[in-house]
UniProtKB/TrEMBL annotation:
Belongs to the BLOC1S5 family. InterPro entries: Bloc1s5. The lineage of its organism: Eukaryota, Metazoa, Ecdysozoa, Arthropoda, Hexapoda. It comes from Drosophila arizonae (Fruit fly). Residues 118-145 form a coiled coil. Keywords: Coiled coil. This is Biogenesis of lysosome-related organelles complex 1 subunit 5.
Amino acid sequence: MISQVGRELYKVPHRILDHRVFVNGEIDTFLDNFELKRNDSEVETLFQVTEIVGSLKYDLSERCIALGNQRLTELSTAVNNLLNDVETLLEKAKVERKPSVELQEARRAREQRKAEFLSNLQHNYKRIDNSFEEKEEEIAELYSDLQLKLNINK
């Protein structure tokens, strides 16, 4: 008997702290009440929304494809026309035009000024070279005179 009492006392904390049966019963009751009150209207609404979205998806995708094809052909023709216009514009731009009379005269004047500048530059180079040669000769004469005066042999 004492052993039986010991076993029962051992089971007491387990019985007191084990709420699984109670919690499962409460959950089942809550779900039954919730489903009855709701009357599955949310599930029906969800299915209706899914059907509407599915039908819109197929209808709109077909309409989008049709409109896309139509607009793409229009855009393709517009782009081709634009490309042709650009090509004609480039061809017109490539045509060489004769420069105006004023431009030709200005070019000639610049070329003449350039030629004068170059001839003046060459003349100045020759003057510098001549001046250098003269100074070189003067210095050579000066040194030869110094050598004679000082009697220095080469």
